[in-house]
Amino acid sequence: MSETIHQQQEELAKRITSHSDQEGVYETAIPSLFFIHRSNVTEPVHRVYKPALCLIAQGSKEIWLAQERFEYGPADYLISSMNLPVMGQIVKASSGAPYLSLRLEFTQNQILEVLNESQLQITSKENAARAMFVGPIESSLLDAVLRLVRLLEHPQDIPYLAPIYTKEILYKLLQGQYGVTLAQIAMKGSSTYHIRDAIEQIMNNFDKSLRIEELADTANMSISSFHRHFKEITAMSPIQFQKRLRLQEARHLLLSESADAADVAFRLGYESASQFSREYSRMFGFPPREDIKRLKAQFDQSIHA
């Protein structure tokens, strides 16, 4: 890591700390910008990543997309270019050197706007690419990110300047190593663009039975082509994708509502409570009741620590 990047990361870490002095995830005054502060290595957390740029100023993290592992730290950036069910774990953090990171969420329309307004020459590719990737951090990208973060000290400038600085960040990313991959989510005609529509359909109907023919029609592909491109982009099949969404939502409902496992299973489209319990145990390592009891105990412990 160059001395310039090291200094930029130090400033970024200080600014994140000043706006997140305690443990947690912080929504900032800048739309779609979040800070994360953790002082301990965490257990794996399952969630859906929205399209976003993720940067780490201090510490490191692992992300699992199905069976594919991504590890990144201050020398890297991570991008999720569409909604993806993942498992994440902070693997380097301490009270003396906490994990400090930021997440800047973006939309397909923002990418399209930058492509339309800039002079970047990016053409659609037939070959779909993974919708999550890790790239090497560059000083010019960090410089643009720091300008955005510094706006928090000047809230009166946020409404006007934040959209401009966000565009600059996206422009830098589109110029980078994975620019074509990122651009494809906004380019009509690309395989990624069409698979994105199918993913949105699954996201909105994950508790219902999947009809692959309908998803393939949504993506304007044959069934075999749809299966191939979907797995290339998400690292899983449509059924596996839906199953992860269902199980993540099931865990959330069991934690937040203290609901019965069988009731949650049927609400989420499972025909068999035993099948639900088997799949839940396979994904989270424990049967539903035992898992929720364990998570609540950990939460109580962290409050009274």
Describe the structure in your own words.
The structure is a single chain. Helix content is 50%, strand content 19%. With 305 residues, it is an alpha+beta fold. It has three domains: 3-184, Jelly Rolls (Sandwich); 186-239, Homeodomain-like (Arc Repressor Mutant, subunit A, Orthogonal Bundle), CATH 1.10.10; 240-304, Orthogonal Bundle (Arc Repressor Mutant, subunit A). The strands form two sheets. The protein has a six-stranded antiparallel β-sheet with strand order 1-2-9-4-7-10. It has a four-stranded antiparallel β-sheet with strand order 3-8-5-6. A hairpin with a 5-residue loop joins β1 and β2 (33-38). α1 runs parallel beside α3 (139-150), α3 (139-150) packs antiparallel against α4 and α7 packs across α8. It is globular, with a radius of gyration of 20 Å. It starts with a helix and ends with a helix.
* Poorly predicted spans: none
Major sheet summary line:
6 strands, antiparallel
Strand order of the largest sheet: 1-2-9-4-7-10
Q: Give a count of the beta strands, DSSP E runs of length 2 or more.
A: 10
Q: Could you tell me the CATH topology label of the largest domain.
A: Jelly Rolls
**What is Rg?**
20 Å
Beta-strand percentage range: 15-25%
CATH architecture of the largest domain, by name, is Sandwich
Indicate the CATH class of the largest domain.
Mainly Beta
End-to-end distance: 37 Å
Q: What oligomeric arrangement do these chains adopt? A: single chain
N-to-C series of helices and strands: HEEEEEEEEEHEHHHHHHHHHH
Shape: globular
- Domain module count: 3
Structural class: alpha+beta
Q: What is the overall number of helices?
A: 12
Helical content stands at: 40-55%
Mean pLDDT: 93
Keywords: Transcription, Transcription regulation
Domain HTH araC/xylS-type: 196-294
Protein name: AraC family transcriptional regulator N-terminal domain-containing protein
InterPro entries: Homeodomain-like_sf (IPR009057), HTH_AraC (IPR018060), Tscrpt_reg_HTH_AraC_N (IPR009594)
